[in-house]
Specification:
Length: 138
Amino acid sequence: MTPYQPIDVVIENQEAITAFKRKALKTGGHEILGVLVGRVRGKIYVEGIVYPKHIDVSADCVNYYPEEFRCIPNAIGTIHSHPEREPGLSREDMTSQATDGDVVFAIYSFWKKKDGKRLSTSLDWYCGSPEVIVSTGT
């Protein structure tokens, strides 16, 4: 039996999530990253997103400084985008989640459907260790 339970994420600031999605879609194919701010009280409450000042971005990776993350009050995890990729965790996602101590992290994926015209999107929430990560797939 695993000690990890499905997570219950309560979005208290839907505007912050919507703004993140819009920003991600406008990046020209580069990943973006934000720090989730909130609290954990049985459920995970997301109150907002703070964007770190010092990050390096590319089409397939975001590098940030965990020291800056730790200085953000009430930081509970990260959210980042996966442009042009279907949902799923990369090895880097699992490694950074484990080493940076995220309580929760989210990945916003967006990709074109097979017809090349329509866009599919997925916002997936994760928590747990790299061996047992639970996704809510919302």
